[in-house]
Amino acid sequence: MPQFSGLRYTAAMPHAIDVQDVSFGWSSQALLLNHCHLQIPAGEFWMLLGRNGSGKSTLMKLLAGLLLPQTGYVHIHQPVGFVFQNPDQQLVMPTVGADIAFSLTNQGLTSTEVRLRVQDALATVNLSGLARRPIYALSGGQKQRVAIAGAIARHCEVLLLDEPTSLLDPESQQELLANVRELVTQRGMTALWVTHRLEELEAADGAVVMESGQVIEQGPPSQLKHIQEYKLSQACC
Ligand SMILES: Nc1ncnc2c1ncn2[C@@H]1O[C@H](COP(=O)(O)OP(=O)(O)OP(=O)(O)O)[C@@H](O)[C@H]1O
User: Fold this and answer.
1) C-alpha span between 37 and 208 (Å, rounded)
2) For the chain, what is the domain count?
3) 179 inside domain
4) Domain of residue 122, CATH code
5) Cα(91) to centroid of ligand 1, in Å?
6) How many A from CA of 12 to the centre of ligand 1?
7) Residue nearest to atom 3 of ligand 1 (CA)
8) Residue 126 pLDDT greater than 70, yes or no
Protein backbone atom coordinates (compact mmCIF):
# COMPACT_ATOMS: atom_id res chain seq x y z
CA MET A 1 0.00 0.00 0.00
CA PRO A 2 1.30 3.50 -0.77
CA GLN A 3 1.81 5.71 2.26
CA PHE A 4 2.37 9.45 2.18
CA SER A 5 2.77 11.97 4.94
CA GLY A 6 -0.75 12.86 6.09
CA LEU A 7 -2.50 10.52 3.62
CA ARG A 8 -2.62 6.91 4.78
CA TYR A 9 -4.03 3.92 2.90
CA THR A 10 -4.91 0.82 4.93
CA ALA A 11 -6.34 -2.58 4.03
CA ALA A 12 -9.55 -2.93 6.02
CA MET A 13 -11.44 0.21 7.05
CA PRO A 14 -14.99 0.51 8.39
CA HIS A 15 -15.46 3.79 6.46
CA ALA A 16 -14.65 4.64 2.86
CA ILE A 17 -13.46 8.08 4.03
CA ASP A 18 -12.08 8.66 7.50
CA VAL A 19 -10.71 12.08 8.45
CA GLN A 20 -9.00 12.26 11.83
CA ASP A 21 -8.10 15.56 13.46
CA VAL A 22 -7.12 17.29 10.21
CA SER A 23 -5.89 20.88 10.29
CA PHE A 24 -4.85 22.96 7.31
CA GLY A 25 -4.11 26.63 6.62
CA TRP A 26 -3.46 28.35 3.33
CA SER A 27 -1.14 30.76 5.13
CA SER A 28 1.20 30.08 8.04
CA GLN A 29 -0.67 32.68 10.16
CA ALA A 30 -4.10 31.05 10.38
CA LEU A 31 -5.68 27.61 10.16
CA LEU A 32 -8.68 27.29 7.86
CA LEU A 33 -9.51 23.69 8.80
CA ASN A 34 -9.24 23.28 12.54
CA HIS A 35 -9.10 19.73 13.92
CA CYS A 36 -11.66 18.29 11.48
CA HIS A 37 -13.17 14.84 11.98
CA LEU A 38 -15.35 13.15 9.38
CA GLN A 39 -16.45 9.59 8.55
CA ILE A 40 -18.30 8.54 5.41
CA PRO A 41 -19.59 4.93 5.34
CA ALA A 42 -18.64 2.81 2.34
CA GLY A 43 -21.31 2.42 -0.35
CA GLU A 44 -23.28 5.52 0.65
CA PHE A 45 -24.08 8.89 -0.95
CA TRP A 46 -23.33 11.82 1.35
CA MET A 47 -23.54 15.57 0.91
CA LEU A 48 -21.26 18.26 2.34
CA LEU A 49 -22.85 21.61 3.16
CA GLY A 50 -21.75 24.86 4.73
CA ARG A 51 -21.60 28.59 4.16
CA ASN A 52 -19.31 30.18 1.56
CA GLY A 53 -15.72 30.05 2.77
CA SER A 54 -16.35 27.42 5.46
CA GLY A 55 -13.67 25.20 3.90
CA LYS A 56 -15.64 22.60 1.89
CA SER A 57 -13.53 22.75 -1.29
CA THR A 58 -10.32 22.79 0.72
CA LEU A 59 -11.45 19.68 2.60
CA MET A 60 -12.35 17.96 -0.69
CA LYS A 61 -8.86 18.69 -2.05
CA LEU A 62 -7.37 17.16 1.09
CA LEU A 63 -9.54 14.06 0.59
CA ALA A 64 -8.39 13.79 -3.02
CA GLY A 65 -4.75 14.06 -1.99
CA LEU A 66 -4.32 17.32 -3.92
CA LEU A 67 -3.33 18.97 -0.61
CA LEU A 68 -1.71 17.46 2.45
CA PRO A 69 -2.92 18.19 5.99
CA GLN A 70 -0.63 19.98 8.41
CA THR A 71 -1.82 17.73 11.23
CA GLY A 72 -4.00 14.63 11.35
CA TYR A 73 -4.78 12.01 8.73
CA VAL A 74 -7.04 11.28 5.79
CA HIS A 75 -7.64 7.53 5.53
CA ILE A 76 -8.98 6.29 2.18
CA HIS A 77 -8.36 2.74 1.04
CA GLN A 78 -9.89 2.81 -2.44
CA PRO A 79 -9.06 4.77 -5.63
CA VAL A 80 -10.57 8.28 -5.62
CA GLY A 81 -12.07 10.27 -8.53
CA PHE A 82 -12.59 14.03 -8.29
CA VAL A 83 -15.24 15.99 -10.22
CA PHE A 84 -14.73 19.76 -10.28
CA GLN A 85 -17.44 22.42 -10.21
CA ASN A 86 -16.44 23.49 -13.73
CA PRO A 87 -15.75 20.48 -15.99
CA ASP A 88 -13.74 22.66 -18.39
CA GLN A 89 -11.03 22.64 -15.72
CA GLN A 90 -10.55 18.88 -16.01
CA LEU A 91 -11.48 17.73 -19.54
CA VAL A 92 -8.24 18.07 -21.50
CA MET A 93 -8.66 16.09 -24.74
CA PRO A 94 -10.59 17.08 -27.89
CA THR A 95 -13.16 14.26 -27.83
CA VAL A 96 -15.14 12.35 -25.22
CA GLY A 97 -13.49 8.98 -25.90
CA ALA A 98 -9.97 10.46 -26.00
CA ASP A 99 -10.54 12.23 -22.71
CA ILE A 100 -11.67 9.09 -20.89
CA ALA A 101 -8.84 7.09 -22.48
CA PHE A 102 -6.39 9.80 -21.37
CA SER A 103 -7.36 9.13 -17.75
CA LEU A 104 -6.06 5.57 -18.26
CA THR A 105 -2.58 6.65 -19.37
CA ASN A 106 0.23 4.84 -17.53
CA GLN A 107 -2.05 2.01 -16.34
CA GLY A 108 -0.35 -0.53 -18.61
CA LEU A 109 -3.58 -1.46 -20.43
CA THR A 110 -3.81 -2.80 -23.98
CA SER A 111 -5.71 -0.72 -26.55
CA THR A 112 -8.57 -3.28 -26.42
CA GLU A 113 -8.80 -2.97 -22.64
CA VAL A 114 -8.83 0.83 -22.93
CA ARG A 115 -11.61 0.68 -25.54
CA LEU A 116 -13.72 -1.64 -23.37
CA ARG A 117 -13.26 0.52 -20.28
CA VAL A 118 -14.22 3.66 -22.23
CA GLN A 119 -17.36 1.91 -23.57
CA ASP A 120 -18.34 0.62 -20.12
CA ALA A 121 -17.77 4.01 -18.48
CA LEU A 122 -19.83 5.82 -21.14
CA ALA A 123 -22.69 3.33 -20.77
CA THR A 124 -22.62 3.82 -16.99
CA VAL A 125 -23.18 7.56 -17.32
CA ASN A 126 -25.77 7.14 -20.12
CA LEU A 127 -23.52 8.59 -22.83
CA SER A 128 -23.08 5.50 -25.04
CA GLY A 129 -22.40 6.45 -28.63
CA LEU A 130 -20.80 9.81 -27.81
CA ALA A 131 -17.15 8.66 -27.81
CA ARG A 132 -16.32 10.66 -30.95
CA ARG A 133 -18.25 13.78 -29.92
CA PRO A 134 -16.01 16.88 -29.47
CA ILE A 135 -15.93 18.09 -25.87
CA TYR A 136 -16.93 21.60 -26.99
CA ALA A 137 -20.18 20.18 -28.41
CA LEU A 138 -21.38 18.77 -25.05
CA SER A 139 -23.81 20.36 -22.63
CA GLY A 140 -22.60 21.20 -19.12
CA GLY A 141 -24.35 18.15 -17.67
CA GLN A 142 -22.82 15.86 -20.30
CA LYS A 143 -19.36 17.28 -19.52
CA GLN A 144 -19.85 16.49 -15.84
CA ARG A 145 -20.83 12.94 -16.76
CA VAL A 146 -17.69 12.59 -18.93
CA ALA A 147 -15.65 13.63 -15.87
CA ILE A 148 -17.42 10.92 -13.85
CA ALA A 149 -16.85 8.42 -16.67
CA GLY A 150 -13.10 9.09 -16.41
CA ALA A 151 -13.23 8.09 -12.74
CA ILE A 152 -15.29 4.98 -13.53
CA ALA A 153 -12.86 3.95 -16.27
CA ARG A 154 -10.05 4.15 -13.69
CA HIS A 155 -12.13 1.89 -11.44
CA CYS A 156 -12.44 4.56 -8.75
CA GLU A 157 -14.62 3.45 -5.86
CA VAL A 158 -14.85 6.82 -4.13
CA LEU A 159 -16.28 9.84 -5.99
CA LEU A 160 -15.71 13.38 -4.72
CA LEU A 161 -17.91 15.98 -6.44
CA ASP A 162 -17.42 19.68 -5.66
CA GLU A 163 -20.67 21.54 -6.43
CA PRO A 164 -21.13 19.54 -9.65
CA THR A 165 -24.57 21.00 -10.38
CA SER A 166 -23.89 24.67 -9.69
CA LEU A 167 -23.54 25.47 -13.42
CA LEU A 168 -26.38 23.21 -14.57
CA ASP A 169 -30.03 23.86 -15.44
CA PRO A 170 -32.64 22.06 -13.27
CA GLU A 171 -33.12 19.17 -15.71
CA SER A 172 -29.38 18.43 -16.02
CA GLN A 173 -29.07 18.84 -12.26
CA GLN A 174 -31.70 16.13 -11.71
CA GLU A 175 -30.08 13.81 -14.29
CA LEU A 176 -26.64 14.12 -12.69
CA LEU A 177 -28.04 13.59 -9.21
CA ALA A 178 -29.94 10.48 -10.34
CA ASN A 179 -26.86 9.18 -12.15
CA VAL A 180 -24.65 9.44 -9.06
CA ARG A 181 -27.40 7.95 -6.87
CA GLU A 182 -27.50 4.99 -9.28
CA LEU A 183 -23.71 4.56 -9.19
CA VAL A 184 -23.86 4.32 -5.42
CA THR A 185 -26.89 2.01 -5.27
CA GLN A 186 -26.01 -0.27 -8.17
CA ARG A 187 -22.19 -0.27 -8.24
CA GLY A 188 -21.58 0.16 -4.53
CA MET A 189 -19.50 3.32 -4.99
CA THR A 190 -19.15 5.90 -2.22
CA ALA A 191 -19.92 9.53 -3.15
CA LEU A 192 -19.36 12.79 -1.31
CA TRP A 193 -21.06 15.74 -3.05
CA VAL A 194 -20.70 19.42 -2.06
CA THR A 195 -23.84 21.48 -2.49
CA HIS A 196 -25.71 24.62 -1.49
CA ARG A 197 -28.95 23.22 -2.96
CA LEU A 198 -30.94 21.75 -0.10
CA GLU A 199 -33.40 19.95 -2.39
CA GLU A 200 -30.51 17.67 -3.45
CA LEU A 201 -30.40 16.23 0.07
CA GLU A 202 -33.41 14.07 -0.80
CA ALA A 203 -31.09 11.83 -2.82
CA ALA A 204 -28.55 11.49 -0.01
CA ASP A 205 -28.02 8.87 2.68
CA GLY A 206 -26.29 11.36 4.93
CA ALA A 207 -24.97 14.88 5.21
CA VAL A 208 -22.09 16.73 6.80
CA VAL A 209 -22.33 20.38 7.86
CA MET A 210 -19.21 22.56 8.06
CA GLU A 211 -18.80 25.89 9.77
CA SER A 212 -15.62 27.97 10.09
CA GLY A 213 -13.34 25.10 9.11
CA GLN A 214 -14.91 22.48 11.35
CA VAL A 215 -17.44 19.69 10.87
CA ILE A 216 -20.22 20.69 13.24
CA GLU A 217 -22.74 17.95 12.47
CA GLN A 218 -23.05 14.76 10.44
CA GLY A 219 -25.73 12.09 10.05
CA PRO A 220 -29.04 11.35 8.25
CA PRO A 221 -30.25 14.64 6.62
CA SER A 222 -33.65 14.62 8.38
CA GLN A 223 -31.99 14.50 11.81
CA LEU A 224 -29.54 17.38 11.37
CA LYS A 225 -30.45 20.49 13.35
CA HIS A 226 -28.38 22.87 11.20
CA ILE A 227 -30.03 21.70 7.99
CA GLN A 228 -33.48 22.31 9.47
CA GLU A 229 -32.31 25.83 10.36
CA TYR A 230 -31.13 26.44 6.75
CA LYS A 231 -34.51 25.20 5.46
CA LEU A 232 -36.41 27.53 7.76
CA SER A 233 -34.25 30.52 6.80
CA GLN A 234 -34.85 29.73 3.09
CA ALA A 235 -38.59 29.31 3.57
CA CYS A 236 -39.04 32.69 5.21
CA CYS A 237 -36.93 34.74 2.68
N1 LIG B 1 -5.57 28.39 -3.35
C2 LIG B 1 -5.89 29.14 -2.30
N3 LIG B 1 -4.98 30.00 -1.77
C4 LIG B 1 -5.27 30.76 -0.70
N5 LIG B 1 -6.48 30.74 -0.07
C6 LIG B 1 -7.41 29.93 -0.55
C7 LIG B 1 -7.18 29.08 -1.69
N8 LIG B 1 -8.31 28.37 -1.93
C9 LIG B 1 -9.21 28.76 -1.01
N10 LIG B 1 -8.67 29.68 -0.18
C11 LIG B 1 -9.36 30.33 0.94
O12 LIG B 1 -9.82 29.36 1.86
C13 LIG B 1 -11.10 29.74 2.39
C14 LIG B 1 -12.09 28.61 2.21
O15 LIG B 1 -12.26 28.37 0.83
P16 LIG B 1 -13.03 27.10 0.28
O17 LIG B 1 -13.07 27.25 -1.21
O18 LIG B 1 -12.45 25.87 0.85
O19 LIG B 1 -14.48 27.33 0.91
P20 LIG B 1 -15.90 26.73 0.48
O21 LIG B 1 -16.61 26.35 1.73
O22 LIG B 1 -15.72 25.67 -0.55
O23 LIG B 1 -16.62 28.00 -0.16
P24 LIG B 1 -17.72 28.10 -1.34
O25 LIG B 1 -19.01 27.56 -0.79
O26 LIG B 1 -17.80 29.58 -1.60
O27 LIG B 1 -17.22 27.33 -2.52
C28 LIG B 1 -11.52 31.03 1.67
O29 LIG B 1 -11.23 32.11 2.53
C30 LIG B 1 -10.62 31.05 0.46
O31 LIG B 1 -10.31 32.37 0.05
Assistant:
1) 10
2) 1
3) yes
4) 3.40.50.300
5) 22
6) 32
7) 26
8) yes
C-alpha of residue 200 to centroid of ligand 1, in Å: 22
Note the pTM of the prediction, 2 decimals: 0.89
Residue 167 within any structural domain of the chain? yes
Our mutation pick for probing the ligand 1 site, out of 57, 162, 195, 212, counting the most ligand atoms within 8 A of Cβ, is 57
Dump pLDDT digits (tens) for 128-167.
999 999 999 999 999 999 999 999 999 999 999 999 998 8
Q: 84 in a domain, yes or no?
A: yes
Q: For the chain, what percent of residues have pLDDT higher than 70? A: 91
Domain that holds residue 101: 43-235
Total residue count of the chain as it appears in this document = 237
Percent of the chain with pLDDT over 90: 80
Closest-lying ligand 1 atom to the alpha carbon of residue 60: 18
Interface ipTM = 0.97
